[in-house]
């Protein structure tokens, strides 16, 4: 069965504006093939949540698919909005048109938007993949994530990258990952270690000098960095990596091991895997969720895995 109708959520700001060209090409293909769709454009930060709520609440189309054209942040918002409606099981299609596109990598979709479009159009039934749900207890916030939630180093790097004057230029040159690397180096030399308590399967682990604390749904963060190679978006579990504070030579050594996929073998790197994970920090730390800033505060987070239907053919 083919998708009967596509509700498109398009973020023209994704990929620092490069999504606009992608969108034009996709629209052309849909028109050429006489595929039925309706377009909703995200006009401001967070708007995709409202658009997805409208789609989920007022859908009258049989076999409808919500198709997101944007980056990981737009996908996150669209799923968050949809799951707040009476139609949370509408399948979600996705065309990666952002700077990082880690979700596409993580589930094995093409990162080329036109190839990804074919993967969406070829689908004849939904597939189910894990996503994460979090509760931030200090503020009572809840939400979903498709990639990861990070506290500490990666979140500080996201904040530094977003403030970087080079981000826009590098994105236009399709070098978004380089912008993130500049952010990484900037914060490595300025961030201090912090204590974190992790609760998994009834066991508490205290790590006094943590540096990076990232709960992830699949291996990638930061635009293609394979931070946790063993994480799978199909296993009904989330994965947590905690890296302890390192001196510069050890950091550089671990970066090399990261490139080789061997960094998790070292004793200053802790890995946890479970359907539910909780963690607490006591100092003021940056947080990031799917590359979006969560602010700077002490975090008390409870994570659980959930399932989401996606409309894509990965065969
Ligand atoms: N019309 C808009 N103008 C400005 N910002 C917008 C608009 N619509 C959405 N946004 C915001 O754009 C931001 C970036 O979106 P998104 O994450 O999809 O792209 P990206 O950052 O380029 O990609 P990635 O997360 O894959 O690196 C999000 O915070 C989103 O809320």
List keywords for this structure.
alpha+beta, Rossmann fold, Tumour Suppressor Smad4, 4-stranded parallel sheet, 9 helices, 17 strands, globular, binds adenosine-5'-triphosphate
What does this structure look like?
This protein has 2 domains: 5-125, Rossmann fold (3-Layer(aba) Sandwich); 133-308, Tumour Suppressor Smad4 (Sandwich). The two termini are 16 Å apart. It is globular, with a radius of gyration of 19 Å. Helix 2 (47-58) packs across helix 3 (72-82). Strands 5, 6, 7, 8, 9, 12, 13, 14, 15, 16 and 17 form an 11-stranded antiparallel beta sheet that branches. The chain has a 4-stranded parallel beta sheet with strand order 2-1-3-4, sandwiched between helices. The protein has helices at 19-32, 47-58, 72-82, 102-107, 113-122, 153-163, 167-172, 176-188, 248-259, and strands at residues 5-10, 37-41, 64-70, 92-96, 127-136, 141-145, 148-152, 194-200, 203-216, 220-221, 225-226, 238-244, 269-274, 276-281, 285-289, 292-297, 300-310. It contains 9 helices and 17 strands. Strand 5 (127-136) and strand 6 form a beta hairpin. With 315 residues, it is α+β, with helices and mostly antiparallel strands. Bound molecules: adenosine-5'-triphosphate. Adenosine-5'-triphosphate (ATP) binds at residues 11-15, 42-47, 70-74, 98-101, 291-292.
CATH topology of the largest domain: Tumour Suppressor Smad4
Bound ligands, named by name, code or SMILES: adenosine-5'-triphosphate
- Radius of gyration, in Å, reads 19 Å
CA distance, first residue to last residue: 16 Å
Helix-and-strand structural type: alpha+beta
Q: Which CATH architecture of the largest domain?
A: Sandwich
The overall number of domains is 2
| Oligomeric category | single chain
Q: In percent terms, what proportion of residues is strand?
A: 25-35%
Mean pLDDT: 93
Q: Which bin fits the share of residues in helices?
A: 25-40%
Q: What is the number of E strands?
A: 17
Per CATH, the class of the largest domain reads Mainly Beta
Low-confidence stretches: none
Query: Major sheet, described briefly?
Result: 11 strands, antiparallel
Number of helices: 9
């Amino acid at each position: 069965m083919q998708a009967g109708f596509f509700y498109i959520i398009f973020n023209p700001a994704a990929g620092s504006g490069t999504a606009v060209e992608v969108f034009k090409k996709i629209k052309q293909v849909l028109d050429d093939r006489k595929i039925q769709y309706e377009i909703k454009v995200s006009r401001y930060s967070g708007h995709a949540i409202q658009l997805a709520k409208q789609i989920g609440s007022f859908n009258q189309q049989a076999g409808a698919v919500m198709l997101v054209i944007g980056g990981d942040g737009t996908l996150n918002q669209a799923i968050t909005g949809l799951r707040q409606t009476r139609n949370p099981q509408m399948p979600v299609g996705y065309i990666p048109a952002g700077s990082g596109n880690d979700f596409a990598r993580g589930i094995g979709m093409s990162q080329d938007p036109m190839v990804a479009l074919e993967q969406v159009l070829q689908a004849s039934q939904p597939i189910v993949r894990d996503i994460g749900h979090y509760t931030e207890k200090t503020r009572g916030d809840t939400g979903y994530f498709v990639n990861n939630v990070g506290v500490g180093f990666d979140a500080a790097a996201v904040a530094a990258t977003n403030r970087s004057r080079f981000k826009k230029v590098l994105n236009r040159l399709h070098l978004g990952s380089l912008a993130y690397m500049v952010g990484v180096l900037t914060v490595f030399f300025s961030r201090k270690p912090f204590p974190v308590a992790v609760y998994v399967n009834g066991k508490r682990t205290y790590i006094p000098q943590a540096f990076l604390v990232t709960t992830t749904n699949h291996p990638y963060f930061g635009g293609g960095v394979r931070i946790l190679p063993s994480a799978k978006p199909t296993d009904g579990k989330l994965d947590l990596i905690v890296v302890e504070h390192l001196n510069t030579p050890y950091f550089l050594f671990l970066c090399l091991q990261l490139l080789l996929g061997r960094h998790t073998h070292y004793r200053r790197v802790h890995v946890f895997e479970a359907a539910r994970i909780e963690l607490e920090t006591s100092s003021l730390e940056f947080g990031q969720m799917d590359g979006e800033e969560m602010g700077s505060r002490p975090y008390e987070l409870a994570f659980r895995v959930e399932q989401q239907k996606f409309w894509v053919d990965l065969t």
